Amino acid sequence: MGPSGSGKSSLLHCLCGVILPDSGRVTLDGTDLTGLSEARRSRLRLERFGIVFQRGDLVPELTLVENAALPLMLLGRSRQAATATARELLDDLGVGDVADRRAGAVSGGQAQRAAVARALVHRPAVVLADEPTGSLDTVTGEVVLDALVGLTASIGAALLVVTHDHRVASSLDELVTMRDGALDAPVAGAR
Ligand SMILES: Nc1ncnc2c1ncn2[C@@H]1O[C@H](COP(=O)(O)OP(=O)(O)OP(=O)(O)O)[C@@H](O)[C@H]1O
């Protein structure tokens, strides 16, 4: 958490190698992302990270299942296998019944659950979420957050969430605040 402009989104972008930090390094399992070429950072991001944005950022012309299957297909899985895995995950998230609707034609909450599926379908090591419930009403936001937290835990991935919402922060293990582009000291046991 932190005030607007404190660097939260930039930190997420640095962590997954979209941008490079002005100073310091980002390492994942011993690999220094900041030392890799842009192409290798992109590949690592595809393989090891899942990312959820505030408005889901799905491809509106594709169905929910096609959107959710994309990371697996980009990683070389067949369309059939990728779609089957994505469909299972959409079922778990309670949106299996709208899996074949185009992303542009479903509700915000349904789209956001599909965005969670797309972020987790390839079992990434790290899931980054930037205001994942920011565009949703309270009840739908809770459903999406519970799914994000529960499924991330079930695949053993780390989850980092940027949020302005204290209720979201209180459902996570640890709260870190930012100010002027730097982390404040962690506050242990936010839950
Ligand atoms: N490459 C970088 N390396 C280090 N720090 C950076 C880098 N790019 C941006 N920053 C920091 O991030 C700040 C910009 O913050 P950012 O836009 O990420 O805010 P935010 O906290 O996500 O705000 P909002 O809640 O409005 O989205 C810059 O002022 C700078 O301190």
UniProtKB/TrEMBL annotation:
SUPFAM superfamilies: P-loop containing nucleoside triphosphate hydrolases. This is ABC transporter domain-containing protein. It comes from the Bacteria. PROSITE patterns: ABC_TRANSPORTER_1, ABC_TRANSPORTER_2. Residues 1-191 form the ABC transporter domain. The keyword Isomerase does not apply. The keyword Cell membrane does not apply. Keywords: ATP-binding, Nucleotide-binding. It holds the Pfam family ABC_tran.
